[in-house]
Each structure stands twice: as C-alpha cells, then as structure tokens.
Amino acid sequence: MTREKLQELIGKMTLEEKASLCSGADFWHTESVERLGIPAMMVSDGPHGLRKQDQEADHLGVNDSIKAVCFPAGCGTAASFNRELITGMGEVLGEECQAEGVGVILGPAVNIKRSPLCGRNFEYYSEDPMVASEMAGALIKGVQSKNVGTSIKHFLANNQETRRMSSSSEVDERTLREIYLAAFEGAVSSQKPWTVMCSYNKINGTYAAEHKEALTDILRGEWGFDGFVVSDWGAVNNRVPDLEAGLDLEMPASGGINDEQIVDAVKEGRLEESVLDRAVERILNIVYRFQENRNDSAVFDRDKDHEYAKKVAEETIVLLKNEDGLLPLSEKEEIAFIGKYARQPRFQGGGSSHINSHKVTGAWDVVKDWGNITFAEGYGDQEDVTDEALIAEAVEKAGKAKAAVIFAGLPDAFESEGFDRSHMGMPNCQNELINRVAAVQPNTIVVLHNGSPVEMPWADQVKGIVEAYLSGQAVGAAVVDILFGKVNPSAKLPETFPYKLEDNPSYLYYLGEGDKVEYREGVFVGYRYYDTKKMDVRFPFGYGLSYTTFAYSNLKLSAAQIKDTDTLTVSVDVTNTGSMAGKEVVQLYVSDVESTVIRPVKELKGFDKVDLQPGETKTVTFTLGKRAFAYWNTQIHDWHVESGEFRILVGKSSRDIQLEETVTVESTVKLPVHFTLDSTFGDLMQDKKAREILEPMMKLDMVGGQEEDSDVAASAISSEMMEAMMKYMPLRGVLSFSSGKVSLEQLQGLLDQLNA
Fold first, then answer.
1. How large is the C-alpha radius of gyration of the chain?
2. Helices (H), 540-685
3. Domain Fibronectin type III-like, which positions (predicted)?
4. Tens-place pLDDT, residues 628-640
5. Fold for domain 317-490?
6. Which of 87, 643, 721, 735 is deepest in the core (most CB within 10 A)?
7. Model confidence over 593-614: pLDDT tens digits?
C-alpha cells in the first residue's frame, strides 16, 4: 500500500482505533480494525526455527507450538562464517512463515557475547560485532526475500539475563559505538529488517523502550531504518514517553490499559497526535507489506527442511583438536559411542526460541545398525550426579574398542533464557566420565553439545575435541558425517574459549551491583582483550581445524598509501595443499601501528569462506573503507582515522596470522584543538602552528641558571630527564621556571594566538 493510501486510511480512524494498533491484540497478533478492513498480522518466535503457537500462548515455550524444524542456533550458525549458507537458511524459514501465515519471525539475535555466563549466549552470534552483524544480515536477507519480516534483537546492550528487566547497562559512548551498536548497524543499514525489537534493560539509566537517541536518532536518523520498533514481550514501562522515543508497537496486549494512556495523553495535549499517526503508519506499512505479498502456494516441507538443517549443521561444527590425525575415523573399526547425548542430543536452547521439532536425529540413530559401534549411557538424567555403574559400563566398552567418542556438554539446567550460568564448568559427572574413559582408551574423542564456552580440564587427556554447539535437530547425522570423514569440518570459533572464567575481561563486573552493571572492560571484549594482553587461551577466536591443509600466499594491497576517503583493495591467494576437498575461512584483521588512543592490538575487518578442491588455488578479495581503520572519537562524536601506518593481517584465526602488509592512511579530518595553560609542551609541540610559536620559548633557561657542567649536576640531571620534564610540563610551568622572563599576560597572548 502506498504511503498516500496509508495516510488516507489513518485519517479515517478514530483516536481509540489508532491507539489500539500500537499494542498487540493478544500474545502473537497485531490488532485489527474490522470497520476499515485492517487485518491483524501474526508474529512468531525464531530465530532458528518457527515456534508458532496456535492455542494457549506464552513467551517462554511452556505451551506446545506446532511441529516445526529446528535449525542450528546462533552460536552454531555464526561458526559457519558462511553468509550464503545462512541466507539459504533464511529463505527456508521465510517459506515456512509464508506457509503458516506468519508475517514477522522474531530474530535474529545479535547481542554481543560479553561473558560466557550469559544464559542466552546460545542464541547470539559472536563476541565480535562484525561477525554478529554480517551473519544477522545474511539471515535477514534470506527471510525477507520471501516477503516475510524479521525482528533484529535485542536493541541495545542486553548482555545478561540476571535482572534483565530492570538492570542498567552503563556503557561509555565509544564502547557502545564500536562494539554494541556496531553489531546491529551493518545488518540494519544494509538489509533493512522490517522490525527492530528493543530490549528490557536500561542504557545508562534510560530504559531501551524510552531511549530516543537509540530508537530515533541513531536507528532511524543515522542508519535509515524504516520499519517499526516493537518491544520485547513486557518491556514497556511508560507507554507515552516510549511512543515519543520511537517505540511503535507494544507486545503483548496490555488489555487496553496502555492504549487508554495514549488516548488520554492526546486529549490532554501531552502527546501530539502526529506522533501516534507516525507509529500507526509504520505498523500498517509492515502489516500490508506482508498481506499484499502472501504466497498461497508456499509449503512447509518439514522433511526437506530437515535436510537443509543438516547441511547447515555440517558447517557449524568446529574441529578443535585432532591429535595424531585420529579423525576421521574408519567406518569399519570397533568404536564406542558414550554419553546420553549420543542418543538424545542437546540440540537447542531453552526459552522463547525452543522449537517443537518434528523429528530429531541423534548420532546413535545413524550408526546403531552398523554392527561395529557399541553404546554406553555414561551419565543419567540427574545431570550432575555421578553414576558409578554407568561409568563402569562406559569404561569397559571403551577399553575394548579402537576409539571412544564421548558425547557431552551442557544440560538445559545449566544454560537457558531467564538465568545466567554461575560458572563455566560442565557437569562433574561428565568430567569424571571423560577422565575415566581417557585413562583406558588413548583414542578418545569428545563431542560437545553446548551454547557457549566451557572449561575443559580434560583437554590434554583426549586426542580429539569436536564442538558441535547446539546444531539443530539434524545434529547427530552431521556429527557422524564429520567423525567418519564424509564431511570435512570447516567451521571456526566465533568466540574465544578461555582456560577459565576468571580470564574473561568482564569477570569482575559482569552481573553488576543491584541494578547497575558497569561495562568497565570497554572495547576490550573477547579476543580484543585476550590478544592485546597476549593471554594464553584454550582456543582463540576464529580457530578451527580441517582434514586438509591450506596455504596462503601473494598478499597484495591496491596501494601503499591512501586517504581515509579512499578504499583499499586487499587480495590473497589460498591453496588447498591437502588431499581432501575443504572450505577455509580467510580472516582479515587491521592493526593500528601507533595510536594516540587505547585500541585493541587487532580487529576483524573482513572474512570470506572459500571452497577448494585438492591443489586448487583461489584469490580472495576484500575492500576496506574508512571504518576499517577508524575508532569512535568522542570529541567529534564520529568515526575518525588517525594518520599513520596500519598493518593488514590475513590468517586462519586471530592467533594464526599467515601474511601481513602495511598501508599508510592519511586523515582528511583535522580534530578541533583548544589549548589552555594546562596543555603540556609535548602536546603543544605536536601541533605545527604551536611548535613554530613556542620554539623561541623552548630556548629559555628553564633550570634557573644552574650549572650543569659539574659531575654532580650531570649525574643528577640527565638530558633524558630534562626532555621528559619539558614534554610533560604544562604551559603554566613557564611562570615558575623562566626566572621571570615570561609573564602570565604573555602566556595568555600566546594562547589567544594558538587558538585563533
């Protein structure tokens, strides 16, 4: 529907009808206006499957939803680093939504993994904003190609479940821009999601639903968002100020209470009716966009979609360790499968994204009829209770086999929406099982089912570690294909696995005090912290092994020197030097050689996944613009590049850089400078104009005529000392050390001249 027709329709509505459209009709539908033929639109939870509830509705998945297909969760899909694959997943989800009459699927979720403890990390993509934004953009592109909307969430700085409806995320401006806003920015700007979901929490003391700077100034004004903003379910705190700030749709229904507040505010002159009209227009624009593009021939083919879920899972499983080339296993050898998750895999997280899967394939389902695979339960339903009988059975079967594969990880009781983890450990019974099996079976492999990093006290005792993440309902088939070499693993970690929780940069401040959570680590989130500190980690960001090998060569830059208004083209050749076809994730990082601001040692600025046959070489190309070299400058409230050298680093992970070159970038923006009597000589001498004016003054005797040629003086006052003292002395210091040769009036005149 055109904007003119929408406005004409809104003009026919009563004040009460317009207010009613700004909140849900129930848990999953927008309001309709039958008198004017305005339809309702259904929304449904995602983002890795369709959780459509037909009967009793709830937000946390307590009541049953329709049978659907569970794809890998965000923790896994991000590990694929494959935009095209995730776009395809989005297309499948969009088709399912069309078949079920769902206008908007609630996802993707792009919140940064600030700490491994966040209970909802399984749903989120990465500790890196570029990975989060790019993978989210790929999913949005796929879903919306089917004329179904997405709802990128949870905007903004929503990084814990504890007190999520009342806590205030205290984040400085630069950190917000470089880390937390950046995760949303690229996806919103490039893919234009139909809706954005605002979070529960406060941002620096203001609820997200009431945060005009975030919802209007940045989201719409800077990024060009043109859909509607919807609240997270129950995130509305003060309906009229929320509406003014840019929150259009409240979900779920408020029983008319908040609608009445809007009506009263308009009647009493506290709210301009044009603000209400604007929100209604945004909502109806999306309602009719879906309504007018319904695909009546769309089919929800669950079995076909299950196969695509398997394809996605194959690229979300990360090979972390493969000592002595133990993997892939032989299909003819005697193998012991151990652990409850071999039969009943943990393949998704709990809460609002929980899918009622139409079928689930466990690893044991695939191999149970092979004849050479045995199974032992290993641990029981009481997830953290060691069962000696089960362990004894597992040890016996492992000892008789050529290799043992232990399926372990985190149970639902350890990580879920609604609460945060209290530690980074796995259940004690599983750790004990792994240790006992590894003691009798040197060829032990651990397959992990978890949504976020875990401590691995047994890592040195096993030869293989496979991170399956929460890879959807087809995870068992995908794991078996990787274990036995039918599929070459190609996923990489979208987050760092530290050795222990205490290593994490947010450890001391994570849950905050009361309702105040300070993000004191600033921009040093994830690998930005670990790599800058040169801290040992269990597995670094971007890490993942393959059954083949890759060589990097011929790194080329399009120029040795550019302006910050130019673009730099970077190309590198990648060759499959092994004997098996495989995919490699090529990662490009940028490092500022010398910066006047505190910056991470390197930051990811590009990645691409390339598919190579044995012996094949392909050229991977990246294009870098200003943002690749910039930091957020709080003085000018904009992105800024400092003139200087930048290292272009290309490699296999943040810790495995294969090639590097250097480019010089010249800034075209001169930062405003204002000197005072407190400005140091060192800072003044960095400015060309100031240097010319001050050079005569620098020749004054600043040590009061003290003899410096005696041995005592020379030993007490070195040239290095004098140089440092001058560098860090404020301009006002001249009054104390010039023996009256310079007056305050002269200094003030100097400042006037410098600041002119």
1. 30
2. 681-684
3. 584-654
4. 999 999 999 999 9
5. Rossmann fold (3.40.50)
6. 87
7. 999 999 999 999 999 999 999 9
